[in-house]
Amino acid sequence: MKRIGFLTFGHYQSGRGSAVPTARDAILQTIELAVAAEEIGLDGAYLRVHHFARQQTSPFPVLAAIAARTQRIEMGTAVIDMRYENPLYMAEEAAQTDLIAGGRLQLGISRGSPEHALNGPELFGHVPAAGETPADMARRHTERFRRAIAGTGIAKSDPRMTGGRSLSLPIQPQSPGLSERIWWGSGTRATARWAGEQGMNLMSSTLLTEDTGVPFDELQAEQIAIFRQAWKDAGWQHEPRVSVSRSVLPIVNDLDEALFGNERLSTDQVGILPDIGNPQSRFGKTYAGEPDVIAEQLARDVAVCEADTLLLTVPNTLGVNYNIHLLTTIVEHIAPAIGWQRPL
């Protein structure tokens, strides 16, 4: 395991027990947690994007703020729903953020997941073309976004403005290397294969939108193997990256026990999600318990062993101080067991 980062959904709510009552609190606390994560040695800060929900929505201002406040860690998304995105405007936003970050931006994108809003992308002005599915539209947006950040000419110039010359104008600014730091959030083995064929890194979460009856980590490891083979077969020259997400809740004091003690017996869950073509989905277990027990369990998690990056989902509504405590415990007592080393 080369890198470990945290992943926040940016929830905010004013109910009892929440340390994040407002959207402003969620945004500012995300930035503060990223700064603290760098100080304790973690490698990344990632945001999950959801629309029409009291969660993180527009990621680039937050990512730019993290970039300006940190020196070493990566910052990114896990993931952006490409059904909602204007790919050219997103290319400008991404490049500017990456320039602030000095090339540390890692963008996870995908077709998106089931959500609260009906026809949400349509309200943002995005409707599938005739014969397209929403997933097809997300891939079309992705293709145009990737062409834009790679410097491909997008617009024809007006000869009146270019001395009579006819030029093909790329999106500006450009940030060199960003095109190799795009990840596809894959929920199935088939979409992992597609990501490898397209030359995008693989991002796999705690949810797989298919089920074959095997444990979650084994199915995810199969997904990773399919991705890497597709990458190799496609002839891509640079080394791909693979991230997996896990919910890891070490219990070292009475507060931890009160909050998460009932998660000690967590197991994989199988269920049916709306707006998903597959009949069943498999949810990965939560790792909760004493640090040495979790360390042993994660060391046996075959997908964690296959990935180079682990994203830790954090209970962000408990506030910055609690999550620093949680992440510090992981860094000091769990991460070394899966081969991670603190950066020098």
TrEMBL record:
Highest taxon of source: Bacteria
Keyword terms, alphabetized: Monooxygenase, Oxidoreductase
SUPFAM superfamilies in UniProt: Bacterial luciferase-like
Cellular component, GO annotation: cytosol
InterPro entries per record: Bact_Lucif_Oxidored, Luciferase-like_dom, Luciferase-like_sf
CDD domains: Flavin_utilizing_monoxygenases (cd00347)
Pfam family, one: Bac_luciferase
Protein name: Alkanal monooxygenase
